[in-house]
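protien #1 (seq + structre)
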Amino acid sequence: MSYNQELNIALLAIQRATLLTQTVFHNNAKGTLSKDDRSPVTIGDFGAQALIISALRHNFPNDEIVAEEEASSLRENPSLAEQIFNLVKESKLNDSSAENQLGGPINNLEAMLTAIDAGNSSGGAKGRIWALDPIDGTKGFLRGGQYALCLALIVDGDVKLGVLGCPNLPINNAAPISADVAGEGKGVLFGAVQGQGATSRPMTPGPLASAQAISMKEVSDITLATFCESVEAAHSSHGDQAEIARRLGITKESVRMDSQAKYGSIARGAGDLYLRLPVRKDYEEKIWDHAAGDLIVREAGGEVTDAEGKRLDFGVGRTLRGNKGIVAAPRGCHGKVLDVVKEVLGGKR
């Protein structure tokens, strides 16, 4: 199957939802805000989820959706729900053909709440299931840094399609990796279909821009590699990752960046390695935090496994409960990186 229609709709849906998140980002998001019922990230999460799920339900009404948010708190807070709906109504692509493909606007507040609640699938290994994170990188969004809108289609437990919208990454694929969001020329859409490679394209407020094929950079000397990790120490073990870098002979400082923007960055060769090692034995990664990025990196010539070398299993529910940690690298050096990961983690047991 080519998944051409699915890719087109996923790209357009992410592009439209980005208009809403960027409105919130530029008007309200300040580093001092926390995630509560009235914080901009909550408004952005709910609004983006409603827009994306509405487009998916219009085009693929029989598909299931696993998404991060649900609308019960909005039903108990009508003023907040109305505030979000006003943003949703204003978030339209400036191309009527593209808007029509997405099913047009959400007609009323109840339709918006119903769309948000449609992300309640329990996941699994059978059928077509979309995995959606409307704003990945909550802390980055609040502090004015990197964040991503993430959507993947999983068919019978296997990721077939992935799209990342990274509004604050540079459009230029040759730009050096940085968590900095200053400057012009920002906003990139990454996409991949299994067996068809990975692409990037500039975000627009209307129809899709032309795509450019992307690929990971070959790493002939691992000591010169650039590795990415999460900003938050609660998300991954900075100490273990620093020790792995030391044993690999990497002397460059890591690039700490929020969200699946890290997957997009290494997929286009701006960085080389992405490590996310567990901080707690009982922690289970959510499928929406990795499905799109996993496929995009693999289609760009990379390898993504857990810390034991197993492929990520997106067919066991809403979490990656069969996997611990993430190791993403170019195929040519993934094995070497993984060996050192096992050494460092094995030494702690």
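ok now protien #2
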Amino acid sequence: MTASESATPGMVDPAIFEQLQANIDSDAQVREELRNILQRLERQGIMFPFQVNESMKNAWESICEQAKTIRDLGSVASKHPYYKYNQIWTRDMQETIMNVVFYVWLGGAGGKPQGTLATIEEVGSALTVPINVKDRDTFHITTEEYLHALISLIEELARLAVNSVTLGDYQRPLQISKFVKDLHAGFQILNLKNDALRRRSDGIKYNVKKIEDVVYDLSLRNLIPRNA
């Protein structure tokens, strides 16, 4: 090595990589904070079906707990660019939205009859979260999350139709069948751009068929009026 070569400073400043590492560490810390909150939300969501079976009061208390956790999530998430981290929480948000919609469908919301579909605005109000925010970078519920939740609701109602027969409730599958068919018709109107959402919506027809089979079986067994 010549004297001139040894005197030449490095072409890459180590400070560049020190800053990059600092960015990586900061990003990891944010993700860890978000995941800790989401673990709490996930535990609350797992308990929701059991609380629904116990009483609507317990179910509402569960939703209030989930809403509080989501407010904690929002306070952290809103400090950062929304689309940088939203993939971390979107699945849990879909599940929580589904819980709210299912609660309303079961007749838990005061003043609303059983079998009512909660709007995205009503879900946002129940969880105290803004919806479809376009004018600022903040935590919110998206239309896609709401639609995913509706598909999950259809899946849950298909299971409920089967379980209702086991429990001797032969009218509920009829109610579920009409509601799910109406939802399916609504999805067919949509021109979905989101690939994952479009694939899931394509599967709605299988749950419609599953529920129709339950109703048809009840009809064959003369357990419901033929004109019902």
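The chain has nine helices and no strands.
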